[in-house]
Design brief:
Number of helices: 7
Shape: globular
Oligomer: single chain
Bound molecules: NADP nicotinamide-adenine-dinucleotide phosphate
Strand order of the largest sheet: 3-2-1-4-5-6-7
Largest sheet: 7 strands, parallel
Order of helices and strands: EHEHEHEHEHEHHE
Structural class: alpha/beta
CATH class: Alpha Beta
CATH superfamily: NAD(P)-binding Rossmann-like Domain
CATH topology: Rossmann fold
Radius of gyration: 17 Å
Distance between the termini: 41 Å
Helix content: 40-55%
Length: about 250
């Protein structure tokens, strides 16, 4: 029960395969109270059905690119008594920008990927930081190896993840004096809705399972458990870091 007494906002649950859903399940097991958001009404029924399996979990709608919805979300969280933890598990790039030559990415595709996948961490953290004051807050986001290595077809999303990881460090500098920590989990490939948009994703899964030190792919529960550690007081000396949950794949050379 390392999260007993903590309130967590989890942004980015689309369905039962979402990494954010793995995080929510680990957090609930560790005693956290949860609020999960969904992006559009289209996802409401499915996300509410998942939330119902974790007693006491609230659900709210919020498109992180919609300022008015973020303001409403913050008001609702204030009425809930503030939060201790923010989990940002949001990313988006246009399908056509996740294949072919990286050099062909147009400015619109660049903006979409970086705005939704990286800037939203900054804007959401800014919005909820006042709710965490005096609470030893923890902000978490999800990254991928494509931030620091060239991964085939990951393309503009790799640039977005590089911006995301740099933002983790700058946010950690800003918020450290207020006692708020900011970290990322860099997950190995997992079959999710977003992952389906990356060309040849199945090949990536096979490649990692063959070469990773642990010789297997990871799952959402492993991401959830690492996130629970980073959200808890057990990691109270850790901020501005990227923790790899990838069966060790990132350390492999040839
Ligand atoms: P997922 O289930 O599709 O989750 C992505 C979430 O982002 C969805 O809930 C999506 O909602 C949401 N989202 C996109 N635009 C949004 C917006 N404007 N406002 C609010 N929510 C928005 O896929 P996932 O793989 O779990 O992705 C979660 C995070 O993990 C992402 O940052 C991803 O890059 C990262 N990650 C994934 C892997 C992997 O292999 N799966 C590996 C490393 C890191 P909609 O469905 O409505 O668009």
């Amino acid at each position: 029960m390392i999260l007993k007494g903590k309130k967590a906002l989890v942004v980015g649950v689309a369905n039962k395969r979402s990494l954010a859903w793995g995080v929510a399940q680990s957090f609930a097991r560790e005693g956290a109270e949860l609020c999960m958001t969904y992006q559009t009404e289209r996802l409401e029924k499915g996300v509410k059905e998942l939330a119902d399996t974790l007693p006491g979990t609230r659900t709210l709608m919020c498109d992180v690119m919609n300022d008015a919805q973020v303001v409403t979300l913050v008001e609702q969280l204030k009425a809930w008594g503030g939060i201790d933890i923010l989990v940002h598990a949001v990313a988006f790039a246009r399908t056509e920008d996740l294949e072919g030559d990286f050099k062909n990415v147009p400015i619109e595709g660049w903006h979409t990927a970086l705005d939704v996948s990286a800037y939203s961490l900054v804007s959401l953290t800014r919005a909820v930081a006042p709710l965490m004051e005096g609470k030893a807050g923890s902000v978490l986001t999800l990254s991928f190896l494509g931030a620091t290595r060239a991964v085939q077809n990951y393309n503009v999303m790799g640039v977005a993840k590089a911006a995301l990881e740099a933002s983790v460090r700058y946010l950690a500098m800003d918020l450290g004096p207020k006692g708020i920590r900011v970290n990322a989990v860099s997950a190995g490939p997992v079959r999710t809705l977003s992952a389906a948009g990356i060309s040849n994703f199945a090949k990536m899964l096979d490649f990692v399972a063959e070469r990773a030190p642990l010789r297997r792919n990871i799952d959402q529960a492993q991401v959830g458990d690492a996130a629970a550690f980073l959200a808890s007081e057990l990691s109270r000396g850790v901020t501005g870091q990227v923790l790899f949950v990838d069966s060790g794949y990132n350390i492999v050379g040839v």
